[in-house]
């Protein structure tokens, strides 16, 4: 008897273990590690993923329930990805089913039914018919056939069907909640040449349009979309239907690939000659790829130093060796530009994976990878799970970005997942950035200085821009001095002067303000009332376009007030500045200026990032104004000025990474200027010009900033000199949270004390901070308290103690409806 060990899709700590099921005889050849199956569980039929196919069950075989169905003809997860999911579950303390579900495209997460049908133009050979007696005839007669019915009717045909699916002779259709998840197009399938000529002989001379259609098919005998054929033959679909009614052609609903780049053309590009510095950086990466050696490289290159060309040539090395590559970018805004660069070099071998694609597009791109027709995946964080089988290289561009850390369970970091996948495949990992994270930089530059790191990257530097172009000079404007001079506008005199100069020259400007909306808060000047979200402890932001106040955390919105809700005064005023307000101020200060604003409000529609960036590249705007999405990776030849408004806005956040993030943002956005022939310059406006982050950004001095920041981190045992686990409790009642938090903290301290780790001399190896109210103490009507586990050394003890303690307090927490969130190596402290 064959057994499937299944992790059932019930994301609970109580059921976070696999269960054994009996595999019926007719499904024996369909089920493997990584298969999705339907299994009985607690009186319901639930989905699960097979994580093992052991020789025998762990319980009495007579008690085993059978697997009811297999949901895919090919397992959507490989054995390697299942093993990776188990590692993620241990590493970030999340249920295994949550880790495995994160790897699946959304189209595979609903209730599904699979159907199999021959692809248009499939020609069956005698060997095919012999491989699965009766199956070919059944497909020709009844297709599409439900996968479950096929498995029962032809139990020995599993291998043949899987082979034909990979060869493209069969196609897989999928119903999700009674909707076809695949896109179908009415397609004309012409007969062979002899039958076409016979049809032409029977068409009367007066039916000229029908003759033109048949003549076109004679010259182009491949299956073609019905509407496309009508356009090509200069007729309409009714003529084609008339031919189909006569039996001269067949019209079928055929699955069509939903290509997110179908309406774009990419001019082919060739490899560039590497500079001496690029060649020196490329050589060790190429050697690791050639030797199939799992090694991590930190490619520290200033903005404009040519990191992308190194990525491209390293990928070409992989393809030459018949290997595959994954390229991660931190922002969806960067994806169109990166896709263009990679598509122009590698064409249809590139698949695109990110959240702004429709579920159907993502599913089709995912299948291109699984079926082997795509060998390079470009996308955001989740593209790290691309179902490749022979990875040679993983690139993480702008590796310092916090967006590589998922904020919902599983709270994985793509950088660590990349290293783990690379270890399994013998692949190289390239972490590229002009401003590396302190964790990566510390591990690469100071490996013996007490840095706590899972990765030990090899440090590779690109210290200069290509073609010896200088980094742009940076001017710091003290806005306190501007106020003393009587300038109360949002633009300093210097920035206004530089903007006017660029407009006169026909050059372009990038303006950064990392706050969206019109005003950051609304206050009554009579009584001091401030508009707050009723569900969160956060001020509402005013959005002038919709004339409402909005919470950026829970989505609550209310109309713009005409009088104070507290004292009925009419002296309601809007304070602070957001991107909408800057856009309005630009129009007033520079009549006729053409502005493109990019923030969450203007880029919510599909394709909007690409639309705005293309318009700016084509010089249809003078100023690109936006939040941090305009700060990274963008490359425009006519941008010669970068202006930063409110450079210090993030410095006072209750987060030890605030100085690092400020420096990174300023350095990255400064790097958008002067990347080509025209020289650039940068103007940074701030109320804290003396702050170390801002002063270092003015000098383009990453090394000096990092040295000082690492010194401070070492004193406080913050990453990279220590590790953190944040445990957050949320509930409607504060006393319950305090009690549960105290219980957790005391149990953790007791465990550390018994192991001799608590209260050690100097910096303790283990301590628990809290419980205290979270920096944002209430979100969505739930109060939040936080404990921070701070430790040094191997993470095994800290992880095990945290997991054990959470299990011990799970029952009272579950009974009272307390939600517990665990974040290992948190990136956001709010």
Overview of this protein structure:
The protein has about 850 residues and is an alpha/beta fold. The protein has 25 helices and 34 strands. The strands form 8 sheets. The chain has a 7-stranded parallel β-sheet, sandwiched between helices. A 6-stranded parallel β-sheet has the order 20-30-29-21-28-27, with helices on both faces. A 5-stranded antiparallel β-sheet has the order 2-1-4-3-5. α14 links the parallel β15 and β16. α7 runs antiparallel to α8 and α21 runs parallel beside α22. It is globular and about 90 Å long.
Key terms:
830 residues, alpha/beta, seven-stranded parallel beta sheet, six-stranded parallel beta sheet, 25 helices
Summarize this, please?
By secondary structure, the chain is of the alpha/beta class.
Strand content: 15-25%
Helical percentage: 25-40%
Oligomer classification = single chain
Report the C-alpha radius of gyration, rounded. 30 Å
Mean pLDDT: 88
How would you characterize the largest beta sheet? Answer: 7 strands, parallel
Principal-axis shape equals: globular
Distance between the termini: 52 Å
Strand arrangement, major sheet: 15-16-14-17-18-13-19
Q: How does the helix and strand content classify structurally?
A: alpha/beta
> So how many helices?
25
Number of strands: 34
Question: Which regions are unreliable across 5 or more consecutive residues at pLDDT < 50?
Answer: 176-181
């Amino acid at each position: 008897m064959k057994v499937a060990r299944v992790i059932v899709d019930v994301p609970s700590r109580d059921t976070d273990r696999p269960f054994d099921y009996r595999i019926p005889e007719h499904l024996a050849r369909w089920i493997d590690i990584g298969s999705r199956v339907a299994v009985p569980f607690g009186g319901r039929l639930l989905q699960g993923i097979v994580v093992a196919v052991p020789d025998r069950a762990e319980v009495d075989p007579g008690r085993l329930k059978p697997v009811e169905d297999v949901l895919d003809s090919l397992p959507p997860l490989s054995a390697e990805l299942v093993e990776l999911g188990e590692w993620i579950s241990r590493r970030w303390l999340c249920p295994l089913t949550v880790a495995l579900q994160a790897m699946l495209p959304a189209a595979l997460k609903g209730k599904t039914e699979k159907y199999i049908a021959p692809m248009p133009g499939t020609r069956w050979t005698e060997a095919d018919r012999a491989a699965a007696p009766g199956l070919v005839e059944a497909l020709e007669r009844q297709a599409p056939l439900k996968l479950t019915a096929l498995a029962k009717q032809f139990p020995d045909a599993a291998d043949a069907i899987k082979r034909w699916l990979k060869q493209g002779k069969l196609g897989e259709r999928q119903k999700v909640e009674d909707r076809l998840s695949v896109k179908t197009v009415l397609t004309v399938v012409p007969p062979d040449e002899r039958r076409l000529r016979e049809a032409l002989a029977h068409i009367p001379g007066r039916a000229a349009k029908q003759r033109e259609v048949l003549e076109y098919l004679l010259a182009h005998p491949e299956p073609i979309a019905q509407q496309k054929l009508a356009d090509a033959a200069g007729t309409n679909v009714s003529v084609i239907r008339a031919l189909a009614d006569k039996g001269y052609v067949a019209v079928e609903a055929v699955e069509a690939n939903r290509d997110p780049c179908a309406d774009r053309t990419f001019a082919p590009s060739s490899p560039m000659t590497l500079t001496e510095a690029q060649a020196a950086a490329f050589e060790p990466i190429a050697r690791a790829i050639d030797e199939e050696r799992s090694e991590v490289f930190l490619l520290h290159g200033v903005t404009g130093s040519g990191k992308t060309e190194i990525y491209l040539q390293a990928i070409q090395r992989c393809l030459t060796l018949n290997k595959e590559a994954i390229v991660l970018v931190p922002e969806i805004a960067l994806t169109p530009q990166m896709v263009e660069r990679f598509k122009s070099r590698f064409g249809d071998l590139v698949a695109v994976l990110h959240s702004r694609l429709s579920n159907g597009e993502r599913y089709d791109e995912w299948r291109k990878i699984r079926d082997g027709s795509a060998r390079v995946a470009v996308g955001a964080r989740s593209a790290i799970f691309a179902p490749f089988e022979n990875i040679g290289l993983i690139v993480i561009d702008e590796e310092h970005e916090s967006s590589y850390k998922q904020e919902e369970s599983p709270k994985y970091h793509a950088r660590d997942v990349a290293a783990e996948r690379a270890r399994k495949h013998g692949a190289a990992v390239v972490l590229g950035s002009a401003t590396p994270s302190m964790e990566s930089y510390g591990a690469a530059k100071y490996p013996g200085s007490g840095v706590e790191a899972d990765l030990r990257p090899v440090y590779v530097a690109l210290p200069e821009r290509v073609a010896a172009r200088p980094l742009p000079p940076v001017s710091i404007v003290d806005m306190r001095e501007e106020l003393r001079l009587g300038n109360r506008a949002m633009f300093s005199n210097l920035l206004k002067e530089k903007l006017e100069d660029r407009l006169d020259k026909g050059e372009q400007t990038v303006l950064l303000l990392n706050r969206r909306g019109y005003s950051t808060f609304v206050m009554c000047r009579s009584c001091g009332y401030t508009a707050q979200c009723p569900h969160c402890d956060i001020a509402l932001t005013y959005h002038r376009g919709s004339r409402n106040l909005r919470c950026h955390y829970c989505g609550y919105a209310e109309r713009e007030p005409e009088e104070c809700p507290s004292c009925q005064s009419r002296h309601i005023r809007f304070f602070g500045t957001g991107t909408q307000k800057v856009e309005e101020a630009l129009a007033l200060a520079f009549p006729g200026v053409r502005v493109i604003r990019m923030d969450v409000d203007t880029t919510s529609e599909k394709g909007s990032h690409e639309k705005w960036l293309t318009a700016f590249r084509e010089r249809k705007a003078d100023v690109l104004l936006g939040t941090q999405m305009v700060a990274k990776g963008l490359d425009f030849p006519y941008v010669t000025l970068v202006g930063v408004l409110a450079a210090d806005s993030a410095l006072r956040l209750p987060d030890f990474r605030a100085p690092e993030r400020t420096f990174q943002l300023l350095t990255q956005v400064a790097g958008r200027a002067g990347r080509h022939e025209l020289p650039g310059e940068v103007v940074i406006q701030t109320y804290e010009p003396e702050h170390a982050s801002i002063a270092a950004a003015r000098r383009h001095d990453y090394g000096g900033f990092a040295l000082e920041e690492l010194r401070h981190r070492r004193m406080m045992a913050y990453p990279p000199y220590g590790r953190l686990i944040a445990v957050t409790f949320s509930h409607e009642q504060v006393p319950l949270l305090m009690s549960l938090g105290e219980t957790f903290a005391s149990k953790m301290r007791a465990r550390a004390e018994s192991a001799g780790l608590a209260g050690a001399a100097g910096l303790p190896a283990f301590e628990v901070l809290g419980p205290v109210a979270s920096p944002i103490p209430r979100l969505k009507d739930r109060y939040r308290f936080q404990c921070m586990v701070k430790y040094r050394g191997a993470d095994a003890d800290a992880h095990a103690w945290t997991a054990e303690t959470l299990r011990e307090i799970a029952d009272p927490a579950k009974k009272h409806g307390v939600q517990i969130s665990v974040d290992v190596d948190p990136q956001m402290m709010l």
